[in-house]
Amino acid sequence: MDLQLTDKAVLVTGASSGVGLAVTRMLLAEGARVIAVARDPGRLDTAMAALEDRDRIHAVTADVTDRVAVESAVASGAEHFGALDAVVCNAGRSLMARIGDTSDEQIREELDLKVFGAWNVIRAARPHLAASPVGAVVNTNAILAKQPEGRLAITSAARAALLNLSRTLGEELAPEGIRVNSVNLGLIDTGQWRRRFETYRSEGGDLDYDAWSAEIAADRGISLGRFGNADEVAFAIVSLLSPRASYITGAHVDVGGGVTRQP
After folding, report:
1. Domain around 220
2. What angle do CA 23, 245, 57 make, to 5 degrees?
3. Tens digits of residue pLDDT in 46-64
4. CA distance 179 to 129
5. CB 169, CB 130: distance < 8 Å
6. What pLDDT, in 10s, does the model give residues 82-112?
7. Same domain for 131 and 167?
8. Could you tell me if residue 3 is inside a domain?
């Protein structure tokens, strides 16, 4: 199916790895043009160099918590391609800590990244998206927004804030022709989980990665019994960006393998 994304200009944050890189690849495969944004210039350059269709990629270094840097990145991308049709707010990480073990500074950093990390991008892109006939935003979020975990206390709270902000923006920006949706991911096989597996092995664990991850999936109540992968998340994101999804806004799609903890 043609997702009608050919020549559309899409800005993707966190584009140097994981879900952001998978979204970038999928958009290029659909014929879109991509403004790839990440904070580490070395990692971004390495990731983009491995992709085909370099003439349809504009790589920009920016920290999404820095409003001025984000405004510059958005302006650079819109000028380079002559338009900006959609954004994917994907930059993020998780803080594995219970509330009593979390400092005030860490709390502020999590809220800054999850809330301002998206809002800075959307705010800067808003006039460009309003000028596009297919303006769209997808915020990469997490099922934690609806199913908080004590071991991810502040990340869960920040994710909930982003989910509510996304719903509010879906309503507020609709009169401007801008759709805003969320994709809530569960346990996704990314570098972060690979690093945790390496720690497990270094501490004497004897399971291989598949068995270790399946054990975690079972503990988390994942019906499919496994981690997801970045392409599975990217498909949901790119589908929501498509003009074929033009009557979907203020919604969220869970990509979590059937997590069952939520009543």
Report:
1. 189-227
2. 30
3. 999 999 889 999 999 999 9
4. 9
5. no
6. 999 999 999 877 766 687 777 888 889 888 8
7. yes
8. no
